[in-house]
Records
---
Amino acid sequence: MTRTTSATKPAAPALPSRLRMVVTRLARRLRQQGESSASPTQLAALATIERDGPITLGALAAIERVRPPTITAAVGRLEEQGLVRRRTDARDRRVARVEITSHGRRLLAESRSRKTAYLEQQLAALSAEERATLARAAAILERVLEKEPS
């Protein structure tokens, strides 16, 4: 009987592990910088509503890859804060669509501005060569994400 020891197991791919960790940590830091009255789930939904709205709750849940009750609760809280409003579809009165309000647009803009300012400050401490490397890496990551099935 052959035993597999830790010495004979293939090592976990270093690059995928490192990327996962650094992307997770960066996302956490950016969430902290963009602190607002809305949760990360609500901000993500709000950004999608801004980009794709007016949108149905079902379509929003599919885009955000969450269950319908989760998106219903998130949109309810956004609506309570005046960040979105529901409108009845003109063609089918049974369908409601969610759209962003001017207050919602301002909140997103402020959150994005704080996050961008944080990144600008961090990147300013890097050399021009390091910033160029990050620009190339960002382009590669964008390509990786484009290939992902929706």
---
Amino acid sequence: MSARQAKVSPSRPARVSAILALALIIGGTLNRISASLERSHRPAGFSRGMVQGALMPMAMPNLLFGKDIAIYSENNTGLTYKLGYTAGVNGCGALFFGFCFWRFSRWRRG
């Protein structure tokens, strides 16, 4: 028996369950982070823009279920916040899509 044959692949229901569990964890975490960020009365700067930008794509499930989440701070510093927000969105997208393409290529091979 080769090493490739000995490898056990998770079933589709297990994969779907894992993805749903991860989505619930991310959603709960996003709710807490969003609430804590909105409590601050200082204008949002570059670092807060990066955090909110990175969390923005993960807000979709909450928004679909009617939970309103702040994904952009109106009280911001202007250009620096927008640069951070853009960097956060792009960084999150690069990590997410990079991971997905890597996983899909591994699923096709195995």
---
Amino acid sequence: MKVATNQYFRELTRLLTEQGGEVASLQAKLASGDKNLLPSDDVNAAVRVLDLNTLMSHHETQQSNLKNLDSRLVQEESVMASMGSMLMRVQELAIMGANDTFSADNRRTIAAEIRGYKEQILMLANSRSSDGSYLFAGAKSGTQPFVVAEDGTVQYQGDGTRLQVQLDAGQVLEVNTTGFELFAGGSNTRNTTLDAAGAFTTLETLALALESGDRDGIAAQMEDIDNLRLNMELARTKIGVRRNVIEVRADILEEQKVSLTGLLSENKDLDYTQAITELSSRMLALEAAQSTMSKISQLVLFNYLR
């Protein structure tokens, strides 16, 4: 078989092109850190990477949602803690006012302090979350839940709807505390002794009883104040349970995220040690091909004519 000079050049040119392309590809991979520069380099790996990225995005969204929910619950818990402390102080003041050693002026001063706490509790009951929605309005999150009517009484404008979010595996989590749950232990109707707005009526009635020196009235309202405080403690306990659920779910998502990150790295990230070794080998092969090309290009018939 005759081998022409053109065949040498064509074969060496092809070899140089292939070796140069491999070197350039490896250098690009080292620069990007990706195992495959194009989806066509490994279609199966590209599909797996796409699926894993979708799962990672879903997990990150869930983690963000859980963080926002926990932030809301922390705010609710803080507001309830403040109101609970005020109700405890109101109980102390009621006990003091029922004491015979206190004068009418003393009781009027105590009544004024109780009305001050009433105003503060009203303000806290109308607290908003970071997104501007009212915390204790139920589904009517854009409506101020507790408003003062023309006759001075407080009315509840929210509802008893408990908002829920769907977690994975069919788990449902309640994410809000209604005005009824806040002050009346979760009742969804106003036909109760202590409904959502009745808390403020109780505080005002206690203040009036103190001003009039009605010890029986003071004693009666003290029991209602205690019920209010216990209802609020119950609502805080429920928040604690919800936060525990969120914490457990967040831990699970974090563990899954670590696992997905590892799988994504296996399918996407370049093995630098292996790539550098291969690059060195390819560069040696390229240098050898270039050297061969140089020598063959000098092989002409006149070199053998002496």
